[in-house]
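Hi! If you just cloned this repository, the fastest way to understand the data is to look at a raw example. We've pasted two of them here, unedited. The first protein comes first, obviously.
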Amino acid sequence: MSELIRKDASELSALLQAGDISSVELTQAHLDRIDAVDGKVHAFLHVDHQGAIASARAVDERRSNGDALGPLAGVPLALKDILATKGLPTTVGSRMLEGWIPPYDATVVTKLREAGIVILGKTNMDEFAMGSSTEHSAYGPTHNPWDLERIPGGSGGGSSASLAAFEAPLAIGTDTGGSIRQPAAVTGTVGVKPTYGGVSRYGVVALASSLDQVGPCGRTVLDTALLHSVIAGHDPMDQTSINSPVPAVVEAAKRGDIAGMRIGVVKELGGDGYQSGVRQRFDEAVVVLQSLGAQIVEVSCPSFDFALAAYYLILPSECSSNLAKFDGIRFGLRAGDDGTRSVEQVMSQTRAAGFGDEVIRRIILGTYALSAGYYDAYYGQAQKVRALIAQDFAKAFAQVDVLISPTAPTTAFKIGEKLDDPLAMYLNDIATIPVNLAGIPGMSLPIGLAPEDNLPVGIQIMAPAMADDRLYNVGAALERALLAQWGAPILSSMAGV
């Protein structure tokens, strides 16, 4: 195994800029790693061998010509299969879009290409991003590199697993209720959900438009910040895009100084239902933050107790609306169109054949919540709870600079363990959902291994809207202290695949 694949993106960038390695060499090392282990991990749905090498060769030529290049030029990346990518399959983990080759790039993909980042391929995900385990992909589950019998989180388990398996140094995910942060927590990697509107959603297949957010994934805080700075910024193609300067995330990740900061521990995001090892590692991380000069304050956000219920009314309602276009007539798969069936019959057969159980479950729930006579009782009430959650965050941030909690209540559970219990599956996002409902940024950072199962635990850091740099400042400080304590990155203790 090439030692290159175990280096951080920032280290690889320095080697590339110094001319010590070429992008072709680096890309080939990661493609070889994918070929060697992805049969077990199943992080990728499509690997673009030829395209990746061609992109890497183009970067090498530009560098040899003396062209000005970005810091991540020539570094490989794994891309979640929810972003439209010209010339590459974009399936969203569903049979409904099987074989679709987009004729255009999502804005984030355009930014990646312009930065010279090499796209290795498209990663596996829960179908239409609905799930917390990547078991709901129509193309089979992804496996956690720490333990191949366990889930890598969801819906972006393919992206997180690719990082933990050293198949890619960087990845892109999307986060609707925790789908970047929760996978990061259970794979021992770093994932950030930026401020809503901070990164363009143009070209991203929509799940819930008021919640979805593209974000960066990496193995270190600095790597994630470098990727964040590439993909963020205003996009006139996205009506929800924020027309403001991108927060100074790279500078914050390099600074990592939290002396004098006030950090709030959210009372409602802990306690009953949280695995003892998760609580232990979180409590230890709080002590580390205090030792770095931060003032720790307990903060209560009582409306968070209703966040899960509100989310699972808002999200299904929006997904019911967004997925209505996949009907066998306008977009996607068409089934049963043999000339003998009505339009309604073709639609029914198409949606039954194209959508999996979890997608169908949420469409039914959302359609019910939006139906006449129930809209105010369910969807309307959920939106009122959402407003209360935003108010609780505002009150909390009036007292503290950032908030923290465990990212997920447990470590990675076994594949198949919760498939028959949707509610138990939904509870995995209980700590991450409030961030999406309020539209604020959040980060997950590894803080050690749970003693009872030796699996990764993550801490969640939350900041006010457009204060994404605070995440990286706190994250970098904690990461640096933990590395000094451990003597090596958390992933070095992984047996590997």
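Ok, and the second one:
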Amino acid sequence: METSVSQGSPAPDPAAVVDEFLRLVMIPDPQSASRFTAPDIRIRFTGNRPMKAPGDTSAFNAKRYAWVKKKIERTETVAGGTPEETVVYSLGTLYGAWPDGTAFEGNRYVDRYVVRHGLIVQMDVWNDSAEWLLVRAGLAVL
């Protein structure tokens, strides 16, 4: 997939940019995923954690999970977007294993991306992991 736009060529489909970015991040291959992000990307990860690059999210996930993947249920492009700026949502569930090896699945997530001229400039991530960790620690009930 081409990530830069040359004179006269259309910008890449924003949903395809997000899907390919997520495919690479889940390998995890944050370096390749960075081809789809602007140098000054603004990432706000779960718990309102600011991050500056896809590698930051991979490093955080490596501490929280033994491994984790996304089961993407749908990618939605918000109506009214333009090649200059479009909002894209990725929705689905997480599956994987906690650090102790206990498997999990069905952990809901929502990611919101702002794609500008074919590059992700903003990424906001929400999921149920914190709630699930509270339950595992006996501090909450489902």
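That's it. A detail worth noticing about the second one: The longest strand covers residues 103-116.
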